[in-house]
Amino acid sequence: MPITGVDHVMLAVPDLDAARAAFTACFDRPSRPGSRHPGWGTTNAVLRFADSYLELITVVDRAEAAGRPASRRMTGVSDAGGGWVSAVLAAEDLPATCAALADRGVPVSPPLDGVSVRPDGRRRRWRVGAHGEEFRSGRLPSLIEYLDPWPGADPDPAELRHGGVHGVAGVDIAVTDLPAAAAEYAVLLGGPPALGDRSATWTLPDGRVLRLLAPVGSAGPAGAGDPVAAHLDRLGPGLCAVALAVDSPAAVAAAVAGRGVAVRPGIDGEPVVDPAGCAPIRLVAARPAPSLTAGATR
């Protein structure tokens, strides 16, 4: 299956300007104004890294957004106060990938073409699959393929690693039925996971980690304080945390705390920050990864 890794992650927010300011204050690096998405009712801003990016996205045209299941998910998450929407997986030959998934018992919405329009009028075409009810419900991530490069020069890679932050290292996805979800993702990702007591984990071709997490318990003390259960209660299944690769988790956490952003321990003991107040980010040590040509860095 030609799914090559995690292209980017999506965070829906009710106030795009406030979210941009919060992330700039947290990581001491600007987000740039992004693009309008005609036909989807959304616009974004982008926090770029060397080989990936974090997309802050908001709904600006509710009537237009109502026509797309994916945009309806973004509307619902924004109306709930904001939060992670989904990982977006990079795919090669998206039509063939979607057809192969259907043949293997995991039907997904077929590719749909779209375009991003920057404030200066520059445009970039892309196509996205798995954008229907499977995405709206949080059951599966979407798949993306870019049809042309983004015009203009890329920033200096050193600038993109400012503050010791390299980029997305992995994603955590909250699920209610781990065996069923793991079976479906095994088809999606082309192989079985490493199984834990309440997790299923894949290392993708780009070196990033995709992990399904089930809640500790459904009620009472077993689930008390469980971030997975809290996410499921608030937003339902779907992306619940993102790991950022950094030079030194302790040093980046100290720098973030020095800027007035709260830092807390995560479920694996790593530092966790939440600049938007609705989307936890785990800080993990960077490790060598395969060289990428991630289209989403444009």
Automatic annotation (TrEMBL):
<dbReference type="Pfam" id="PF13468">
    <property type="entry name" value="Glyoxalase_3"/>
</dbReference>
<dbReference type="InterPro" id="IPR025870">
    <property type="entry name" value="Glyoxalase-like_dom"/>
</dbReference>
<dbReference type="InterPro" id="IPR037523">
    <property type="entry name" value="VOC_core"/>
</dbReference>
<protein>
    <recommendedName>
        <fullName>VOC domain-containing protein</fullName>
    </recommendedName>
</protein>
<dbReference type="InterPro" id="IPR029068">
    <property type="entry name" value="Glyas_Bleomycin-R_OHBP_Dase"/>
</dbReference>
<feature type="domain" description="VOC">
    <location>
        <begin position="5"/>
        <end position="140"/>
    </location>
</feature>
